[in-house]
Amino acid sequence: MKAILKRTKFLELQTQGKFELYNNDDELVFSCDTLELPWKDNQNRISCIPLGEYKTIPRTHGAYANRAFHVQEKNGGEVKGRSHILIHSGNFFTDTKGCILLGRGFHDIALKTKKREIQKDGVMDLLNSRQTISELLELSDGFELSVQTDEKVIEKKSNSRIKIDFIKEGEIAYVNVKSKLNLRSEPNTESLVIDQLVDDTPLLIKEDLGEWMKVATLGVEGWCFGEYISLIDSNLGVVSVNSGTLNIRSDCHVKASKILEKGLNKEEKVEILEKRGDWYRVKARIEEGFVFNEFLIR
User: Which positions make up the signal peptide (predicted)?
Assistant: First the structure.
């Protein structure tokens, strides 16, 4: 089996990412979120590990015995310049000590036990970690691991926001909101509201300042908050998998039968018909079925 850890958010105190596990038929069988420390030149216990190719084996002794994977170089040695790098459970960046935490979802949480007390501090913490690790241990007794960086994600140091660098000046994009998006005279929330744009309004991108975008629509120019602008119509989705294909199923659960003999390819577009819990009902290649929402970009 092989796994891909793709780092997607690079923050001052931590690094967030996605983990995907594929079987020998290159089918996605498991996915979750990851939490690591920031990159600090591979320093022991204060840095995440370098990008590269590794292998993992079950941890059978010491801390986290039978509850973690040991990350090694492909030749079986310790990660270069490091020792005892594990994939294990934990909720906070202070739990990592340079290792990799797995879980599902992020939230700023508080914790109080006999050993420690952590207050809400505005930093996103990892959820459902023990259950996630248990599921992975049941699926695999070791796998190849590729640690990568999502090249489409860049850090905006000025405001600590993460910008997805899809949209370029001169491109057509769309409003993607549930209500209305303010079109303002200047790139700040204190400026005059020129108009309010509804979902799916087409926009011509004139200038991109990261957090704000200058757009033209219906003969009017102004500034919109970039978080609510998408390259595609909100009724369309784009398949997002690191490798392999995405299965489209007859119902909204993982044991439902596959509709297509060959799954959906990376960056393939589908029409979104409705959302049911964690699944989308979509139309793809004239067929209708369900895909897990985590692997669809809207």
Answer: none
φ, ψ at 137 (rounded to 5°)? -65, -30
Give the C-alpha separation, 164 to 234, whole Å.
Answer: 16
- Cα(287)–Cα(280) distance, rounded to whole angstroms? 14
Q: Sign of the C-alpha dihedral, residues 72, 78, 80, 86?
A: positive
% the chain with pLDDT above 90:
37
Q: What are the pLDDT digits (tens) for 99-147?
A: 999 999 888 877 666 556 666 667 888 999 999 999 999 999 999 999 9
- Reduce the DSSP state of residue 226 to 3 states and report it: helix
> In a 10 Å sphere around its CB, with 0-12 CB exposed, 13-18 middle and 19+ buried, how is residue 104 labelled?
middle
Task: Please name which of 251, 246, 262, 244 lies closest in space to residue 290, comparing C-alpha atoms.
Answer: 251
The class (CATH top level) of 167-230 is mainly beta
Which residue type, as a one-letter code, is found at position 117?
E
Q: What are the residue ranges spanned by the domains of the chain?
A: 2-155, 167-230, 236-297
Q: What is the CA radius of gyration of the chain?
A: 21
CATH for the stretch 236-297: 2.30.30.40
d(CA 222, CA 187): 8
Same topology between domain 167-230 and domain 236-297: yes
- pLDDT at residue 163 in the model: 35
What is the separation, in whole angstroms, between the first and last Cα of the chain? 29
Cβ atoms 247, 29 nearer than 8 A: no
C-alpha to C-alpha distance for 123 and 37, rounded to whole angstroms: 13
Per-residue pLDDT, averaged over 245-256, amounts to: 91
Q: What is the pLDDT of residues 60-90, one digit of tens each?
A: 988 888 999 999 999 989 999 998 999 999 9
CA distance 57 to 279: 32
**What element of type H or E holds 20?**
strand 15-22
